[in-house]
Amino acid sequence: MSYLNFKSDYDCFPKTKIKEHKAFCGYDEIYRELNKKINDSSVVVFDYYPGVDEDEVYELIKRFNFSLEINMHDLFKDGKTMTEQMKYNLTDDRVFGKMYYGNLVDFMDEEKLKEAQNKIKEQNGSVIVYGVGAGLVSHGDVYVYFDMARWQIQLRYRKGMANYNVDNYDEDILKKYKRGYFMEWRIADKHKAERFECFDYVVDTNTKDEPKMISKDTFKTSLHLLSKQPFRTVPYFDPGVWGGQWMKEVCNLDKNQPNYAWSFDGVPEENSILFDYDGVIVELPAMDLVLYKPKELLGEQVYARFGAEFPIRFDFLDTMEGQNLSLQVHPLTEYIKKNFGMSYTQDESYYILDAKEDAVVYLGLKEGIQSDEMIADLESAQKGNIVFDADKYINKFPAKKHDHFLIPAGTCHCSGKNAMVLEISATPYIFTFKLWDWQRLGLDGLPRPINIEHGKHVIQWDRTTKWVKENLVNATYEVKEEGNDCKIEHTGLHELEFIETRRYTIKNSSYHQTHGTVNMLNLVDGKSAVIEGDFEPFIVHYAETFIIPASINEYTIKPYDCDEVKVLKAYVRS
């Protein structure tokens, strides 16, 4: 079936053109460029994000014939010792760990680190220091950073790649991801952010054997320009046991795949950004922008509150011709801080982009239920003794296009089948406590993790039918904004949540001020729109998420190639 009455122009690979800058494509070009900078006495630093293919890069290193090579693996503690040191943060849980706020150097042998630093001082010939954390040994004469996006790392985990410095090649993917999320990526991002000014070059290593390198000036100029204009991150899509068919058509995806369940389109922690240098496309983690230009991107107030973290997340959940999501609940702020070391929690909402007539959202508890009885039934269902009767305990609301369901942390919820959800939430996206998964196995053939033990401590038992109807289901009202005559509606979120969402129905033009805070938007209706301001006009298409940096004071949105559009905007309340 067709879900649209127009041809979708959704762009899966949005790029930002950077004029008067170039990229070096392939190891041959990279070698020639670096060889101009390296002499017989140079100290060269090749620093890696964990996940970079070290064997691949070593083939480049061998071409230079350095007098002394220092491999960072020799300076780190052995894998077993590192894992033991991480034990408190990794926990025994399959999915959840505790956030680590230390540094890369915590996992290194300090004596070996000092020894390596002394070797460089004593060495007369050329030196190469290479590997994760190489910049801790020296900043060198030529510093090259080899970068990679988290999504690419996750795909490599699936193909058998281990975490850094351990041999967990065959370990459960969720445990590999946990180690990355709670440990490796955090300390690697901190290490990278502290050394931006040291880089002479940055290398995109996301595609095997197809590296692209840019100079420090190009790297800094590109991120600076992006922090002053609208942009999109590169979405990625993944199948799931409950996945649907909507994104295949609307997002122009592979029709031969069984389904696509979810997409991150607007999650800078996970997504990439693409730069076009005269036809050479370079992919960098979007987190590079967040870390390098946090105040320009986020705004002073958001940065002061969250630090260099992007606090809003947009993603897609597709159950059209699919199945229900798992019944779930998210932790309260106190619980997530105490148990996982996070400073804020996963408040969220479901905005319905599309729906069939039988679509529903499960949200909140029915009146008069007994908490002990519900938990006992969930635990019995987990053991396979019964089938959990969700309809007995959980409200079920009809869902139609442009409905907005608000889901503050502690509220039981899930989307039913035949709905296309734009999920708008705070960023800590991993903290979903599944309560019931409709007797399903994951795509890997294993039971999907159920988290009743966590869930029962955070369920808000007073969020029952009457309260949910009044507070969380289409709590929409019109508002006025200076300089605007289009229809503007506050659609959320709940007062317990820090994100404000507004829907603009635009026939001519609408005027927007950022008030010094980052705006994240999605074109939820209409073929396309044009964003204009003190930057080149920016075209967005139906269902695309885009970001307006805080450094942009004002901008306008108007329909493009259609008569009317609807835009949903989210920002952090002051």
Low-pLDDT stretches are none
Mean pLDDT: 96
**Please, how many helices?**
17
Helical content (DSSP H or I, runs of 4+): 25-40%
Radius of gyration: 25 Å
Structural class: alpha+beta
Number of strands: 31
- Strand-residue fraction? 25-35%
Largest sheet: 7 strands, mixed
Question: Would you write up a description of this structure?
Answer:
- Strands 2-8-7-6-3-5-4 form a seven-stranded mixed beta sheet.
- The mean pLDDT is 96.
- It is built from 17 helices and 31 strands.
- The chain starts with 14 loop residues before the first strand and ends with a strand.
- With 574 residues, it is an alpha+beta fold.
- Helix 6 runs antiparallel to helix 7.
- Strand 7 (201-204) and strand 8 form a beta hairpin.
List the helices and strands and how they pair.
Layout: E1 15-17, E2 24-25, H1 26-37, E3 43-48, H2 54-61, E4 68-71, H3 79-85, H4 87-90, H5 110-122, E5 127-132, E6 142-147, H6 150-158, H7 173-193, E7 201-204, E8 212-215, H8 216-226, E9 236-238, H9 246-250, E10 262-264, E11 272-277, E12 280-285, H10 286-292, H11 294-298, H12 300-306, E13 312-318, E14 327-329, H13 333-340, E15 348-355, E16 360-365, H14 371-382, H15 390-393, E17 394-398, E18 404-407, E19 413-415, E20 419-426, E21 433-436, H16 452-455, H17 465-471, E22 477-478, E23 487-492, E24 499-506, E25 510-513, E26 519-525, E27 528-533, E28 535-541, E29 545-548, E30 554-559, E31 565-572
Helix pairs in contact: 6-7
Q: Brief description of this entry?
A:
The protein has 574 residues and is α+β, with helices and mostly antiparallel strands. α6 (150-158) packs antiparallel against α7.
